[in-house]
Amino acid sequence: MKRLANFYTEREQSILGGGFILLLILLWELMPRLVPPSKGFSLFFTTPWKVVEAAYQLFVENKIQEHFYVSSIEFLAGLGLAIVVGLPLGLLTGRSRNLDAMVDPFVTIFNATPRLIFLPLFILWFGIGIWSKIMIVFIGAVFPLLINTYEGVKNVDRVLVNVVRSFGANEWQIMKIVVLPNSVPYIVAGLRLAIGRAILGVVVGEFFGASKGLGFLIATAATNYKVDVVFAGVAIFMGLSLILTMAVKKIESNLSRWRPEEAKTF
Amino acid sequence: MKLKQFFAEHRRLWLGLGSVLFVLVAWEALLTYVFPLNPFFFTKPSLIAVAFKEQVIYGALWGDLAVSSKAFLWGFSFAILVGIPLGAVMGWRRKAGYTLDPFFTALYASPLVALAPLIIVVFGVGLFAKSVLVFALSVFPFIFNTFAGVRSTDRLLINVVRSFGGGEKDLYLKVIFPSTLPYIIAGARIALGRGLVGIIVGEFYAASEGIGYAISRFGDTYRLPEMFAAIFLLMIAAVALTEGMRKLEDVLAPWKPSQERR
User: Fold this and answer.
1) Please, are residues A17 and B102 in contact by the beta-carbon 8 Å criterion?
2) Mind telling me how many Å the CA of B230 is from chain A's nearest CA?
3) Does residue A143 form part of some domain?
4) Positive/negative CA dihedral, B131, B135, B136, B141
5) In percent, how much of chain A has pLDDT > 90?
6) B18: domain range?
7) Closest C-alpha to A136, from A80, A201, A183, A49
């Protein structure tokens, strides 16, 4: 008994947290058996087990792989483009005050606006193929990267920069030796936010004018009242974003143990 | 000499204004003198200005904006009403925090927007579904920021209030609430952005009115100047809200903790 109590107190956090999620899933599964749903309601209702079955079915039919492939290309290409553009721009605006002043209005405006409003425009410009999604992923992900890189550069220790400069380093060497290493934690934090925005872009981009991708799968399933397929698709997105954000979060906490506690952001 | 000094003092402002003006002029000039304008593909500032005048000053876009704001306000208010107490309980009661944290984290980290088609199919096209979407997206920043705020409350202050005989009510009103406030407002800013996403997606997906619907309708009918006018209107509203929230943050919580800018 004592050992059991010890076991509990040592792992209280994970037992309570994991237990609660398991309990919810169990309740969800048992609900239709405890309270039989009415006919209209059962149209929108599904249970976790049915979701698993639907996911398995899609997997066997090779459908998930197909949609997943398209979605991941959009995600990777858009995020890659965002990194290629956002990082250098963030470094430059962080180092040059004039450039910062010139770019700042655009960054403020675009960052405040949900970039998804450009989706109809991108569909018009890039068609309903993969490129309109890549662009919406890009424009969603680029700003958190840019802003966080900028913040990292701005927070660099002036003394260190001056030391390196006194020893005759040029701007490029300052960047390489002091600024870039110092900004890494910020960049990783920006990357975490960017991943969230990128997934958002993939999902929403595929809702409209698409013929492939997990978002498309979800949207068509919803209009056909295949609720179990909807949840299967949502669960895949959930799993992916959890894995990705947790991985980046792990890197982040390794890199920035010294930073004060902050609220979670995704 | 005076002019030079004036310029030097407000250098940031001038450079910012200048670059915005430059982009607008270059956009207009390029499409007027260099490339022939294909009105089904692109548009230019002068045409957008005309459309803006028509749509915003005389036109129907205000109605659309009002419809969207209504759904936004309902969802956002409920997010505040639910999120702050939940976060406070999670922060104050250790076990409640342990129990709810992983579940809410999973929901917060996942793109809940993926549920939009289902929410719209279930709740129908209209105010209610959009409000639900806004609520689902914007409740989590309130929960987690309140949670973090309550948890980081200075134990010393709590002990001081207790030592001087303060009750539970004093604790909440005099220590926990003021020290959590900056976190809550920072959360509100994040929630604002997520709520706007909810509105836009809801209206793109299925709606008969609203600013998102207006944008996608103008896009479908190749009315690019009107579309840009609607986009600009939304941009102005979004910037006003975000900057307003930032100002509010400075006024209500000048002692704010370090926060990433996003």
Assistant:
1) yes
2) 10
3) yes
4) positive
5) 38
6) 2-36
7) A201
Instruction: Record the pTM.
Output: 0.87
Q: Which of B24, B40, B98 to mutate to test the interface with A (most CBs of A within 10 A)?
A: B98
B243 and B183 in a common domain: yes
How many domains in chain A? 2
Q: Under an 8 A CB cutoff, do B219 and A124 touch?
A: yes
Tokens of B19: 């670059």
Clarify whether residues A67 and A20 are in a common domain: no
Residue B65 lies in a domain: yes
B123 touches B132 (CB < 8 A) = yes
Task: Provide the residue count of chain A.
Answer: 266
Q: Do B19 and A13 touch (CB under 8 A)?
A: no
Model confidence pLDDT, tens digit, residues A168-206: 888 888 888 888 888 888 898 899 889 999 999 999 999
Q: Within the 30-59 window of chain B, which residues sit less than 8 Å (CB to CB) from chain A?
A: 41
Assess if residue A45 is contained within a domain.
Answer: no
Q: B129 CB near a chain A CB, below 8 Å?
A: no
Residues of A in contact with B140 (CB under 8 A): 266
Which residues in B191-201 are b (16+ Cβ under 10 Å) and which e? bbbbbbbbbbb
Q: Does B171 touch chain A (CB under 8 A)?
A: no
Beta carbons of B103 and A148 less than 8 Å apart: no
Residues A147 and A20 in one domain: no
Q: Locate the DSSP E strands across B115-244.
A: none
What ipTM score was computed for the predicted complex, to two decimals?
0.85
Between the CA of residue B84 and those of B74, B122, B142, B183, what are the distances in Å? Answer: 16, 27, 6, 11
Q: What is the CATH number of the domain that holds A117?
A: 1.10.3720.10
Is residue A234, in this structure, part of any structural domain at all? yes
Has residue A57 been placed in a domain? yes
Parent domain of A76: 50-255
Interface contact A17-B113, CB threshold 8 A: no
Residues in B closer than 8 angstroms to A230, CB to CB, are 115, 117-118
